[in-house]
Structure prediction request, 294 residues.
Amino acid sequence: MLEAGTQARTWLAPAKINLALHVTGRRADGYHLLDSLAVFTRFGDRLEIAPADEDAFTISGRYADGLPLDDGNLVVKARDALRREAGAVQTPPVAIRLEKNLPIASGIGGGSSDAAAALNGLAQLWKLDLDSDALARIGLSLGADLPMCLKAKSLLARGIGDDLSPVAGFPALGLVLVNPAVAVPTPDVFKALAGHDNEALPPLPKRLDFHSIRNWLETTRNDLEVAARSIEPAIGEALKALKRADAAFMRMSGSGATCFGLFETGNVAKRAAVEIRARHPDWFVAATRSMEAE
Prediction:
């Protein structure tokens, strides 16, 4: 229930960056098994939720155009799934506004992160007696990325993305995110994948700092990158732009087309983003930092 005087609140829906992603198998139902190290950034979409006389959902921001406002949107699906779980009496109408800052179908978990922010935000606003396991179960019914987006912390994800292990002590990393203004549908990438049974990630280094993580990443892969680049060669241009800007390490995130570059400090990342944006004004370019693990 909403208490009298409840005000609108805003939740961050952070970008999810797969620093490494190995495809380790495929289940009989078609879901791929993954082994991934993921971090979440301080930059992302934002979700404002307020009490209302009737449900409303609106979208603003750079990437709002063309997004559905009905139950074709994961935010609306999340609201409705939570309402079915808790009952209509406990879940009165709300107005939700999504500020869409992340590009669509870009491999950084935008839609899943939006839905996770909706689940977390509404559960708090409605004061629902649901623990994290219950929210994860609801989230998984909406998509394989939802459980990790509900955590929004540095983590290792296995299985279909639902077997999660937080990585304590993982440092904040300076990142530049680059998308060459193209969308790559995830199902198309998996269809183009040549192999499904690759080895798992190697163990993380005992000491977690910028240099050890960078060196560890050199021993890993994103098994979706070759398939994604066969669909959209512009991904290679994004990686070249990051290399030209002196990224210490660069790779495609998730199923693409967004790529990330690692930079030793936030200021160096900001300068690199300015440089890339000047050369490619139509691209999505964002300097940010990953959120430090607790």
